[in-house]
């Protein structure tokens, strides 16, 4: 029984509480696109103010300004992120995780680059975001892109499996504090790109799945050991039945 107690205590140490919220969007890696490089609009995707996620750099942390009217500070209440190096047809998910004590509603959407270029509303919002980031001189990471990535002899740009992720933060609470109702909250949010394994299970859940399978196998053998112990104990120490009860039977 001492071994059982040690195993039980060991399993308890693996349990911890996380107070957080999660919002996600699931999508498939797109086909590669060819965009006209004649327009200067394509150069927006090379901007050093545009953050990037890919399978090798799959997470980043941002501070977004959640507010009730997102038109007040467009560059701080939303984020545009380039999802790069995606595999065509592979399933992915992007998760946003933030503290449960910061009530915020996140809206996540993914767009193909050609869609952003062709829709005026999307492109103007995207450009305004980059302009605000540029004015704030907030350079997340310089993306070194080869010169010929967006230029080819045919005057086209081959965009291999890229998407644009748009994240919008909106305050999701009510309070008698006038300042919070007017200014909103600054929310620390983790943004994670997670590819699926065989388009079934998110890669980040592999460790959790392995843990659960191992726990199930351990429980199977442990239950047999406990049952054998209880059966042996019952056989060696039969219950004392009163003599009168025996005679009545």
Explain this structure to me?
- By secondary structure, the protein is an alpha+beta fold.
- Helices cover 32% and strands 30% of the residues.
- It contains 7 helices and 11 strands.
- The protein has helices spanning 2-12, 74-77, 113-118, 120-135, 178-183, 206-236, 243-248, and strands spanning 20-28, 33-36, 51-53, 59-66, 78-83, 91-99, 104-111, 156-159, 163-171, 185-197, 201-202.
- A hairpin with a 3-residue loop joins strand 10 and strand 11 (201-202).
- The longest helix is centred in the last third of the chain and has 31 residues, at 206-236.
- The chain starts with a helix and ends with a helix.
Question: Secondary structure elements and their pairing?
Answer:
Layout: H1 2-12, E1 20-28, E2 33-36, E3 51-53, E4 59-66, H2 74-77, E5 78-83, E6 91-99, E7 104-111, H3 113-118, H4 120-135, E8 156-159, E9 163-171, H5 178-183, E10 185-197, E11 201-202, H6 206-236, H7 243-248
Parallel strand pairs: 3-5
Antiparallel strand pairs: 1-6, 2-8, 4-10, 5-9, 6-10, 7-9, 10-11
Short description:
The protein has 249 residues and is an alpha+beta fold. It has 7 helices and 11 strands. The strands form 3 sheets. Strands 1, 4, 6, 10 and 11 form a 5-stranded antiparallel beta sheet that branches. It has a 4-stranded mixed beta sheet with strand order 3-5-9-7. A two-stranded antiparallel ribbon has the order 2-8.
Beta-strand percentage? 25-35%
The rough form would be described as elongated
Mean pLDDT: 78
Low-confidence stretches: 141-158
Q: How large, in whole angstroms, is the Cα Rg?
A: 28 Å
Helix count, DSSP H or I runs of 4 or more residues: 7
- The tally of strands reads 11
Helix content: 25-40%
Most strands sheet: 5 strands, antiparallel
N-to-C order of helices and strands: HEEEEHEEEHHEEHEEHH
């Amino acid at each position: 029984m001492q071994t059982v107690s040690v195993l039980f205590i060991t399993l308890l140490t693996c349990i911890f509480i996380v107070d957080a919220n999660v919002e996600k969007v699931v999508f498939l890696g797109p086909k590669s696109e060819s965009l006209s490089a004649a327009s200067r609009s394509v150069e927006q995707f090379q901007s050093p103010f545009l953050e990037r996620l890919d399978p090798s750099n799959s997470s980043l942390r941002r501070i977004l300004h959640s507010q009730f009217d997102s038109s007040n500070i467009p560059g701080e209440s939303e984020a545009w992120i380039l999802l790069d190096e995606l595999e065509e047809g592979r399933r992915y998910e992007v998760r946003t995780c933030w503290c449960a004590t910061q009530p915020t509603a996140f809206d996540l959407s993914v767009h193909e680059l050609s869609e952003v270029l062709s829709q005026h509303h999307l492109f103007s919002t995207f450009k305004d975001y980059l302009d605000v980031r540029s004015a704030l001189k907030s350079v997340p990471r310089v993306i070194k892109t080869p010169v010929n990535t967006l230029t080819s002899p045919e005057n086209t740009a081959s965009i291999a499996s890229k998407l644009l992720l748009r994240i919008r933060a909106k305050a999701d609470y009510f309070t008698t504090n006038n300042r919070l109702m007017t200014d909103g909250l600054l929310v620390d949010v983790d943004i994670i790109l997670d590819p699926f394994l065989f388009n079934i299970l998110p890669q980040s859940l592999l460790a959790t799945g392995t843990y659960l399978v191992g726990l199930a196998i351990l429980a199977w053998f442990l239950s047999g050991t406990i049952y054998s112990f209880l059966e042996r104990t019952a056989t060696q120490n039969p219950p004392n039945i009163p003599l009168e009860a025996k005679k009545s039977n």
